[in-house]
Amino acid sequence: MENKVLNKVGLIFENVDPKEVLTKAFNMSKDEVIQQVLDSGLKGRGGAGFPTGLKWKFTAAEKDPEKYIVCNADEGEPGTFKDREILDRVAYKVYGGMAIAGRTIGAKEGYVYLRGEYKFLLPKLMKELDDFHKMIDEIGYDFRIHYRLGSGAYICGEESALFESIEGFRGEPRNKPPYPTTSGVFSKPTSINNVETLVTVMMIIKDGAESYFKLGTKDSRGSKVFSISGDTPTPGIFELELGMSVQQFVDEFGDGDTKAVQVGGASGFCVPRKKFTETIIGFEGVPTGGSMKLFNSSRSMYNVLHNYLDFFTEESCGQCTPCRVGCQQLLKGVEKVKKGESKSTYLNELVKLAETMKIASKCGLGQSVGNAFRTIVENFREEIIY
Amino acid sequence: MINLTINDQKVAVPAGTTVLEAAKSLKINIPTLCNHPDLCVAGNCRVCVVEQKGARTLVASCATPVSEGMEINTNTLKVRNARRHIVELLLSEHRSDCTKCYKNTKCELQALANEFAFGDNIFLDLVEDHSYTIDRSSPSFVKDDSKCIRCQRCVRTCSELQYISAIAVANKGAHQKISSFHDRPMSHVICTNCGQCVARCPTGALTEKTYIDQVWDAIYDPDKYVIVQTAPAVRVALGEDLGYDPGERVTGKMVNALRQIGFDSVLDTDFSADLTIMEEGTELLTRLKKALVDKDASIKFPMFTSCSPGWIKFIEHKYPEFLPNLSTCKSPQQMFGALAKTFYAEKKKIDPAKVVSVSIMPCTAKKYEADRPEMRASGYKDIDFVLTTRELAVMIKQAGLDFRNLESAGYDNIMGDSTGAAVIFGATGGVMEAALRTAYEIVTGREVPFNNLNITPVRGLEGVKEATVKIEGCTDDWKFLEGAELKVAIAHGLVNANKLMAEVREGKSPYHFIEIMACPGGCIGGGGQPIPTSKEIRQNRINAIYSEDENMVLRKSHDNPDVIALYKEFLGKPNSHKAHELLHTHYVERDNF
Q1: Which of B85, B116, B152, B179 to probe the A interface (max A CBs under 10 A)?
Q2: Which chain A residues contact residue B152 at CB under 8 A?
Q3: What ipTM did this prediction achieve?
Q4: What homologous superfamily does CATH list for B277-329+418-583?
Q5: Does A353 reach chain B within 8 Å, measured CB to CB?
Q6: What domains can be seen in chain A, in order of their start residue?
Q7: pTM of the model
Q8: pLDDT, tens digit, 9 for 90 and up, residues A106-157
Q9: Does the beta carbon of B55 lie under 8 angstroms from any beta carbon of chain A?
Q10: Cβ neighbourhood burial of B386 (10 Å; 0-12, 13-18, 19+)
């Protein structure tokens, strides 16, 4: 396994001349843009890690004259706050990325679905959007971006639930297939990309695919913005080259007493101290949308798990059985075991249930509840029981 | 065609077919719960998950379209474990007091539990953690959230088939539930009481409000004279709850059973259906005359039928500006009720205060209709109790009757005579056909110009049907209609009714007369009919209705001897003052939520 050293990078927040980058992009053919993004190795920065170039290629190949580019700014994963920072500091690069995506896939309109709690950013974002619209009008490119605000539901960060929400319906995930590239918002071919992904595209166009490809590892190219919180002397936003081990990460950000790192938020994986060295942060190890939460020995991993399960029990949309009822069962189950009202072996049944949720839930939410559950129960079993 | 293999068997099916349907074509059964043939795919319950080779997760077979080269396995250990878990999870949030439940032995969750999850519960009971509501506010049905498994069949029914959305999903996660506007009781929202949700609920979460005990009490009360009427659609569906295939007519056995149960008199709603035709047909012709001859601008067209109480409540809520277009005729049930405690009591020399009037209906909205304050023309509650087809089946079982071996029997008189025109009220288009058979003959003195009186353009399961009848050779009284083309339309299922009403609102409706039935297929698909329902089952019931019509000696409402006698002895003529007092009603504007 490749292993890079911890390397701080400054691509995302680097100020660029958007007009220059867009003009460069618009002078390329659509296929050339797609090829650049493919060659860069960029994978979706929301966490799921679908290759961005492929997503665009599929959407571009659809014949429908009406298509959309949607920016997922619903940043709801507990412990991630990087998209807020990106929007606050370089929103014009998000818009630029959307315009490049729009031209590439054939969309004249884009939506930014902004997390409801980020409403305070909206006046500034709208002003910057006006400036952006003026700029692309000057370039002579016909493209418009609209804002839609979420209302606080975690599930609306799931792409198809997000579409439902934009359309004015209850945010519930759809059945797949069809995938968004064929039938997304308003049932039209849609490319939905994370805030950071769109900004990254701006940088790939500006600097070329090659320089981005040089960063990171075989499975995880480039750099990534991390939201670092928990027991750390230096919480905040850091852009790091992908491919470091958890140990290297902890060496930099830990407080000297780190016993576990939750990588990828509540839906991510818990890495215990004994696995720090062998675990790479990236798609070959533990993937993450950016949330990195450090826990030191003063923390009860039961409380951590309980908190996550409580969160999922509230934030499941409630539509499908494994997720709606499964979350409640996991939560109640660990409570009973902790109180001694259920046998500790009941945890084994719950791990099996988590596996069912992973393979039988309708969307990524229910499918990923088991990640934290399994990794915490497996690595900190005694903390759950006693 | 798409080629795939399911459990190592090759199959080729058209593109767009789901894995579930493809499996069915191979006679491979995959259990389902949220899936219903009348509704869009939900993919919620996940009971139907199967393994697809190469896929990261299991896939819901109801929601997954086939693809070329797909390899599906429906019975791997992974699938079985997941399915068991899913059924166990559903059971853990479902108040499983099965032995006392109205749906016991008819519950789809129970059947799945029996297949996949018998024995001790794996998971903890979650019912105790929630405070569930049992909503008994509607006179038609009970909504018990503690038995709800959130499959959303009811929600889809209410929006897709009925265009009402009185119920919808509220809240998320553990608090997710099926609720109404601002959590109001069902009696205080736009619900039409049609019961289509009840007919599609897989568990006991939605059931009709039963009045079986009250009816037994009346029967055993020596002071009461209990009469019962049976709606046309009941006789072609009751058998399904008693072991017969859909579409078996059990009219004679049903009459015998009712008599053995102890009703003092077994009468037929068909009688008052024929009466409805006389009143409504006359009303239509009078409206045409007022509009065309007297140039009375206050007369509204199109005129709408008023037999279906679900439809009445729909228009009261959603299109109240068109209430003047509704026929003022009460439904056959209520005409019967008004006469039972007046004309009938008088003829039979019974104190009307002692008459208990029961009706057996394919409908849950009829329970609501009977409770309407307008329905007390006799000075009493015209209809005391309404039972659904399903409740009658329960009573037949409770009475210990060997239904299959019962002799056929005939209705009592008076108010027991019927014609084929009345029977077809049970199917969509039937009221229209019956009205045309009579109105055409009143105007021209001749039978409708259709082979064997079968007005086929108004029949069938098409959502919206239309027909034009040219009126020629009018008698002297109706010369003003000579050469006129009467345009009619028929809709069943309120989503289809809404299509016609949207046209009316836009001023684009070319019709003179529109028949609307709230339920898919008309009354034979009513919310009180045996469960399950599907297009195929409804078609079988419709076929039975038309064969019942064909087998009748009398097939036109104006030929019904009981109806003729009623006018002669009691009402005078159609739309007379007395007829208006007893047989007509008015409507109420209601909120659109």
Answers
A1: B85
A2: 319
A3: 0.95
A4: Fe-only Hydrogenase (Larger Subunit); Chain L, domain 3 (3.40.950.10)
A5: yes
A6: 18-214 (3.40.50.11540), 301-385 (1.20.1440.230)
A7: 0.95
A8: 999 999 999 999 999 999 999 999 999 999 999 999 999 999 999 999 999 9
A9: no
A10: buried
